[in-house]
């Protein structure tokens, strides 16, 4: 029976590789002890030197093998190491691999021995032109290190390599589940196989036995379970997963392998995307698998958290793994959460020579083989992102994808009109929107075809409007509005399957792409996964029964606006309407703006004035009502401060009637409207569904620092998992109304006690009032006590490690 043994602890590492390191000595004096996943260089948050992690490093692991059995196969499985590896065991080279985004295996048997063994990995993390994605410029960083997990798999001479599962008619009442099993045998022999299907509660649903005759070498065996009834479909709202288990028995040995599977039908057509026969508009974001300080190297929990943010917090139904295959843990979470995936091959614009192209094909083969059984994956990206047409190369990539997986369609991302369509879906980046009326081009203008084909926009916004969380209010609000326009356009267009915007999270990049600090501020969240206003554009489109939300996307300060004033401002919410109070007095009710955003489920609400309903200006009730209506109209139009002659005459007439000067009444009007010179405004915004008050927020100018707040994503971490565990801890400086202090300038210092370590620096600034850090376990149980101190205060929290 095969065994999987985590191989992630007690590694040794140094930032160079000497010729003598191949000898695999037990000397570790020049090394530091590390755990996997591991980055080869801790980097600064920004202004980094991207050459600093591009070097050849050395990893060493000393392990003991008791009861060595030469009849068994000992195989080391690397999930990901950037970017070229040479593996040595006990002084002998036993393997090598090119590519940083796909898994690879190395058999240890040729050099393995009883007792002490010494494994050495020579890891080249330079941007080698012979390995995708490199060869040209790349708009992201491919951080070095053995940044994913490593496992030791022990196999018998007869064993199951992998399972390929598919259901040809998932919508039929009676279903058939096919299983193509790769089985390896040392010699020809008879065997019995048992195929079993279990539901999520591990209840046995179906079982069937088979008699097999295995040949020596690799065997591809086709098995199936027939007439499966009463099974539930996998969907984005109810992602039902089943487990298929194959048990193999020979006269002397037995083996077992299982994998999860979801019954679903996914199909792109000219009029959109269909899941299980129902038209579904795809709305999502791109994701880079990178974090501050540690690059790509994050463990299972943190990888999964990104999927939770994209699906649950932002409400997306699809993510694109830009621009490479990503962690199996992230994809596991997509399967479980019902988050659809476009997974694509490594690359960025550049296509290399024949050897380079052959390596790219091998990347596709490994990507599809690894992730074949995932119900979340609906499209294979088999074109180098934004590369030029190459008929021969892309004919090969499409043919390979269809050969390995005839059940899924292919796509390939381009960014110009009229690109050759060899894939099943015309996937393209549309950066037409620059703030004006045009959002996406007409389909046939993009494709250059005179007929409709399946299409999907795979990037928009992004570099067209990079936005920092601490930018001026005008920019962070417009950033949100541009994402709302993209969502609205994608939902409105019947010739598009949907849109995947750029992107979920900010990321480090090369100097020729990012801002002056080598960060691409293209995310709706920052690198620490803290939301910008644009994140609420997506979150506000969630159904209120899943999560009621109301976010007031303004700083609420007159000094932020040219000429002073606090209106108009925008509220992003999935409530039916909002009620606004100013300084304890009712202003009125405001409703979603369906005029501009006709296709959104929950359009933004624009608050255009702050005239209290009971403002009387010392007038009679009738005149006060007339004057309030006049002011509301002018403020909503933004014309009060540039009043026309007729308006000034009206104000003068009303002033004279109540023995006021025109200037006095005009100043009263400006103050009532929330303009310059009014008292500090305190606004209460209440959200209603039907007639029920369900949520409220306070903003205002009488704000001041209230507290530092620490929030850990997880209250409990695991001490003895397959690798170290980790969790994000968010820190926010809040005001007395509970809102982040966007302009506070504070640097905080982090202290921890207990079985934890900080993944990054201990001192860092707050950005737009927030930041975050990650705490990793050390293998011991206990309580991690966290203390953060700043100039304005301090905060504490704890995380249990069990």
How would you describe the overall organization of this protein?
With 802 residues, the protein is an alpha+beta fold. Helices cover 16% and strands 34% of the residues. Strands 3-2-4-9-6-7 form a six-stranded antiparallel β-sheet, with no helix packed on it. A six-stranded parallel β-sheet has the order 25-24-23-22-21-28, covered by helices on one side.
List the helices and strands and how they pair.
Elements: E1 3-6, E2 11-14, E3 32-34, E4 56-65, E5 73-78, E6 84-89, E7 92-98, E8 104-107, E9 115-124, E10 150-155, E11 159-166, E12 175-185, E13 189-198, E14 204-214, E15 217-228, E16 242-249, E17 254-261, E18 266-269, E19 272-275, E20 278-280, E21 282-286, H1 300-313, E22 318-321, H2 328-337, E23 340-344, H3 354-371, E24 377-381, H4 391-404, E25 409-411, E26 426-429, H5 443-447, E27 455-459, H6 473-492, E28 498-501, E29 507-508, E30 519-520, H7 533-539, E31 550-552, E32 569-573, E33 577-582, E34 585-590, E35 605-607, H8 621-637, H9 645-657, H10 662-672, E36 682-689, E37 692-700, E38 705-712, E39 716-717, E40 726-735, E41 747-753, E42 756-758, E43 763-765, E44 770-777, E45 782-789, E46 794-801
Parallel strand pairs: 21-22, 21-28, 22-23, 23-24, 24-25, 26-27, 39-46
Antiparallel strand pairs: 1-10, 2-3, 2-4, 4-9, 5-8, 5-10, 6-7, 6-9, 11-12, 12-15, 13-14, 13-16, 16-17, 18-19, 19-20, 29-30, 31-32, 32-35, 33-34, 33-36, 36-37, 38-40, 40-44, 41-43, 41-45, 42-44, 45-46
Helix pairs in contact: 1-2, 3-4, 6-7, 9-10
């Amino acid at each position: 029976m095969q065994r999987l043994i985590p191989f992630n602890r007690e590694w040794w590492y140094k930032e160079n590789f000497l010729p003598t390191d191949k000898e695999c000595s037990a000397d570790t004096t020049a090394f530091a002890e590390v755990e996997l996943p591991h980055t080869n260089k801790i980097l600064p948050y920004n202004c980094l030197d991207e050459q600093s992690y591009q070097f050849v490093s050395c990893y060493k692991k000393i392990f003991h093998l008791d009861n060595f059995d030469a009849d068994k196969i000992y195989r080391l499985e690397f999930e990901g190491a950037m970017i070229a590896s040479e593996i040595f065991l006990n002084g002998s080279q036993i393997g090598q691999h090119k590519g940083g985004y796909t898994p690879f295996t190395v058999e240890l048997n040729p050099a393995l021995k009883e007792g002490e063994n010494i494994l050495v990995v020579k890891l080249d993390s330079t941007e080698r032109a012979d390995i995708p994605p490199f060869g040209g410029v790349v708009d992201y960083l491919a951080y070095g290190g053995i940044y994913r997990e490593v496992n030791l798999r022990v196999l018998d001479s007869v064993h199951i390599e992998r399972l390929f599962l598919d259901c040809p008619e998932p919508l039929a009442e009676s279903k058939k589940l096919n299983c193509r099993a790769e089985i390896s045998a040392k010699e020809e022999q008879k065997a019995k196989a048992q195929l079993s299907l279990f539901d999520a509660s591990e209840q046995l649903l179906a079982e069937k036995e088979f008699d097999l005759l295995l040949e020596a070498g690799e065997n591809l065996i086709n098995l199936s379970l027939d007439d499966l009834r009463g099974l539930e479909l996998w969907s984005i709202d109810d992602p039902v997963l089943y487990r298929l288990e194959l048990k193999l028995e020979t006269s002397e040995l037995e083996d077992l392998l299982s994998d999860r599977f979801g019954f679903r039908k996914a199909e792109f057509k000219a009029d959109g995307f269909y899941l299980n026969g129902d038209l579904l508009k795809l709305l999502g974001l791109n994701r880079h698998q990178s974090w501050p300080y540690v690059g790509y190297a994050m463990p299972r929990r943190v990888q999964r958290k990104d999927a939770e943010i994209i699906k649950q917090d932002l409400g997306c139904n699809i993510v694109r793994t830009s621009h490479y295959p990503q962690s199996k843990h992230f994809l596991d979470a997509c399967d479980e959460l019902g988050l659809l995936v476009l997974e694509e091959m490594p690359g960025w614009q550049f296509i290399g020579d024949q050897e380079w192209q052959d390596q790219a094909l091998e990347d596709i083969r490994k990507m599809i083989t690894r992730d074949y059984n995932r119900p979340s994956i609906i499209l294979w990206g088999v074109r180098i992102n934004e590369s030029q047409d190459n008929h021969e190369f892309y004919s090969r990539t499409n043919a390979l994808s269809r050969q390995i997986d005839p059940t899924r369609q292919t796509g390939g991302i381009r960014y110009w009109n009229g690109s050759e369509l060899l894939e099943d879906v015309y996937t393209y980046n549309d950066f037409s929107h620059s703030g004006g009326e045009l959002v996406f081009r007409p389909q046939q203008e993009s494709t250059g075809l005179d007929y409709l084909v399946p299409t999907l926009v795979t990037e928009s916004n992004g570099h067209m409007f990079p936005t920092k969380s601490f930018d001026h209010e005008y920019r962070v609000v417009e950033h949100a509005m541009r994402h709302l326009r993209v969502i609205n356009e994608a939902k409105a267009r019947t010739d598009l399957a949907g849109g995947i915007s750029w992107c979920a999270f900010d990321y480090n990049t090369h100097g020729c792409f990012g801002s002056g600090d080598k960060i691409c501020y293209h995310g709706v969240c920052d690198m620490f996964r803290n939301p910008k206003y644009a994140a609420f554009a997506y979150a506000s489109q969630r159904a209120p029964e899943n999560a009621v939300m109301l976010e007031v996307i303004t700083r609420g300060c007159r000094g932020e606006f040219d000429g002073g004033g606090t209106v108009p401002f925008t509220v992003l919410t999935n409530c039916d309407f909002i009620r606004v109070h100013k300084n304890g007095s009712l202003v009125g009710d405001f409703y979603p703006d369906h005029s501009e955003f006709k296709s959104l489920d929950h359009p933004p609400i624009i608050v255009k004035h702050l005239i209290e309903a009971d403002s009387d200006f010392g007038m009679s009730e009738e005149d006060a009502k007339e004057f309030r209506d006049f002011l509301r109209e002018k403020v909503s139009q933004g014309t009060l401060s540039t009043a026309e002659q007729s308006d000034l005459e009206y104000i003068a007439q009303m002033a004279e009637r109540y023995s006021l000067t025109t200037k006095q009444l005009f100043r009263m009007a400006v103050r009532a409207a929330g303009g310059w010179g009014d008292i500090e405004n305190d606004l209460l915004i209440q959200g209603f569904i039907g007639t029920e008050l369900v949520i409220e927020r306070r903003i205002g100018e009488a704000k001041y620092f209230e507290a530092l707040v620490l929030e850990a994503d997880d209250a409990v971490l695991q001490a003895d998992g397959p690798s170290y565990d980790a969790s994000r801890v968010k820190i926010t400086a809040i005001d007395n109304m509970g809102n982040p202090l966007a302009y506070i300038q504070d640097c905080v210092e982090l202290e921890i006690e207990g079985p934890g370590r900080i993944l990054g620096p201990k001192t860092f600034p707050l950005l737009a009032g927030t930041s975050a850090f990650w705490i990793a376990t050390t293998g011991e149980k206990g309580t991690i006590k966290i203390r953060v101190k700043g100039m304005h205060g301090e905060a504490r929290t704890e995380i249990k490690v069990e």
